[in-house]
Amino acid sequence: AREPVPPEGMPHALILDTLRCCVHMEDPNLRSRSAEALDDSWDRFLENGDPEKTSPSDEVLGYVQGKYNEIGATEAAIVGLVNADETIQLAAARLLLALLSNGNEAVQNTVFSSVTRSRNEGFVLSLRDGIKNGKDLIKEYEKIRVELERQQMMAILTARLSMRKSKRGSGKVSAGAMMTMRQTTMRTMRGMTTRGVSSDGKGVDIATDSFFMDCVKLVEYLTEGHHGNLQGYMSQQPNNKTSHNLMAEIVGVMEELVPACNIALDSMDDCMVQMSIQCSKSLSEATQGPCAPNQDYLTSSNLLIIVDRFFSANAYMDPDEGFDNDSRS
Fold first, then answer.
1. Which of 81, 109, 227, 293 is buried most deeply by CB count within 10 Å?
2. How far apart are CA 107 and CA 100, in angstroms?
3. Contacts 24+ apart (CB under 8 A), 174-177
4. Under the phi-then-psi rule, with left for phi > 0, alpha for psi from -120 to 50, and beta for the rest, what region is 226?
């Protein structure tokens, strides 16, 4: 049988992933690190988390990030992000997040210098399109949620019908009917969560395993530490032919998230909530310092109305006993 042909961008994506792995695993204090610490670093790499280093962790992480920034890893990530291949884009975004983690100013300066020097709109366009994709994810989530609720109702109706038939025949409920009802109850208690479910059945986590979340997080990491130049770049790119307001794109996604979060919370599902939190963190980081132009834009946008809808649509109360265990089991 012929071996399956890997995606065209896979070799380039693997190189970017290898660089990201080095940022996670390299540590000048490697000899003093325990096996558990190394396993934790490897797990963080596999789970696309932030790198963590030995004490003093900030200084050690900054040293490793600076080293790979100097040899061109940041430039490689920028080039990969504007590539048309989605596999390369995703790997590039995650490498850039690892390099920027904890607000590395040297990496931020490299990004700003590169994207303004080249006058290439590709970088901001990739971020814009990735953020816009959040609206498609929300629609996909709502579609999956409706289908899962339909399956839930069908299971409940089937279980009840089975119990009625069992009672008519012997006056007792059969073990099979009880098992069906028990399984249905468990699905109901778990909220039939969409985490790990996708319309194509590949088990994609909509909340965290998406290019959208990486792009919104990049806005946060690029502007962390009140980097004024990149904060301004998030809303205006004066050196480009066309300027794109990433703040406006995030606000647009948040508007779509209001009804989606209501659906998710009713089902004890945090998928849409995670998206909302990340959008809020990115907008917050891009305005701190303060960054007056971004603040002026947000106050003139629909953001305050959207936030009011979030608070107005949800009632906060003490959870029922066992809620946490049921929702996470």
1. 81
2. 6
3. none
4. left
The two tokens of residue 270 are 């945090």
Radius of gyration of the chain (CA): 24
| b/e code 9-42 from CB counts within 10 Å (16+ = b) | beebbeebbebbbbbbbbbeeeeeeeeebeeebe
Q: Where are the alpha helices (DSSP H) in 73-121?
A: 73-81, 86-100, 105-117
Location of structure tokens 């032919």? 241
- Structural contact between residues 99 and 73, judged by C-beta atoms closer than 8 angstroms: yes
Q: Which two tokens stand for residue 30?
A: 């490697």
In tens digits, what is the pLDDT along the chain, a chain of 329 residues?
455 555 666 889 999 999 999 999 999 887 878 889 899 999 999 999 999 988 889 999 999 999 999 999 999 999 999 999 999 999 999 999 999 999 999 999 999 999 998 777 899 999 999 999 999 888 888 887 777 777 767 776 776 676 666 655 555 555 565 555 555 544 543 444 444 444 443 333 565 668 999 999 999 999 999 999 999 999 999 888 889 999 999 999 999 999 888 877 777 777 788 899 999 999 999 999 999 999 999 999 999 999 998 888 766 656 555 545 544 44
Crossing angle of helices 10-25 and 35-46, in 10° steps, is: 150
Q: What six digits make up the tokens of 181?
A: 């009802």
Look up the pTM and report it.
0.80
**Amino acid sitting at position 180:** T
